[in-house]
Amino acid sequence: MLDKIDSFGTSYSLKKINEKKPIVFIHGVGLCKEIWYPQIDFFKDYNTLTYDLLGHGKTPLKKSKVYFEDFSKQLARLINELNFDKIHLVGFSLGALIARHFASEHNNKLSSLILHGSIYKRTEDQIRVVKNRYEVAKMNKPASKQAALRRWLSEDFLKKNPDIYKKIYTILEKNKRLDFLKCYEIFVNYTDDDKMLKKINVNTLITTGENDVGSTPEMSKNLSKIVGGSKFVEIKKGKHLCSIECAEDVNITFKKFIDQHND
Question: Residue 87 pairs with which residues in a beta bridge?
Fold first, then answer.
């Protein structure tokens, strides 16, 4: 799929094969739309849309400070420009937080919502750990990127797949440092808003990896109690990037849910 740019500067890749609702994927902080390659390959018979968040990949960030409202507007503008009345939305990590915000404002735009690897109500210890990671990231040293990859993927998987390690490391390395830190900062300091979450009124699936230390199964279970009528599925043996490491399980889980709501 060729990259295109919308009139607001967002870099995106669209695969449109019919008139059905597309699946729109939102990546996590420091990553880009290329991270969804296992899903794009799997959903080859579906319309799929991936895009680079503000300050990521090929999409610029022209503000000194960024807010979740900016990311919500980015998505709204993109799907409006592409004339999509309704979509299936999949958000990962920071992308899951953006998807939550978008869904709370635009229930009418969604046929289904998947929140994958989402944080919810970090403990004091978890807040301290993530703030420490942010301070380390500010130094822009290789150790920060290496630690992220070990946190996101199992040691065994990384040993067997050096090409995937290199691919993701390269994405992290290409980030514009100041733009990345602006986006990382709002992720690190995120405060959950239950009132906003209770506004979500759409078919919702909440998933995370069994071994995800940052977006734990406990967080997802608790999140599913707040988002009305949502369903929780744990991806066995998965870490944060189980969409790559456990792609088969993740893809089948996503497909089953999307197919149920593909009216």
Answer: 110
Q: Which fold has domain 4-260?
A: Rossmann fold (3.40.50)
pLDDT of residue 262: 87
Residue 201 CA to residue 12 CA, distance in Å, equals 27
Tell me the average pLDDT across 32-51: 98
Say what the pLDDT of residue 174 is.
Answer: 96
Average pLDDT, the chain: 97
For residues 63 and 79, give the distance between their C-alpha atoms in angstroms, rounded to a whole number: 22
Report the alpha-carbon distance of residue 87 to residue 258 in Å, rounded: 10
Average pLDDT over residues 46-55: 98
pTM above 0.85, yes or no: yes
User: Looking at residue 254, what is its pLDDT?
Assistant: 98
Task: Please state the domain extents for the chain.
Answer: 4-260
Is the CB of residue 248 less than 8 Å from the CB of residue 239? Answer: no
Give the pLDDT score at 1.
65
- Return the closest-CA partner of residue 34 out of 205, 128, 133, 168: 168
Torsion of CA 51, 6, 59, 62, to 10 degrees: -140
The arrangement of strands across the sheet holding 87-92 comes to: 4-5, 11-15, 48-51, 23-26, 87-92, 110-116, 204-209, 231-235
Smallest CA-to-CA distance from 192 within 235, 225, 169 is with 225
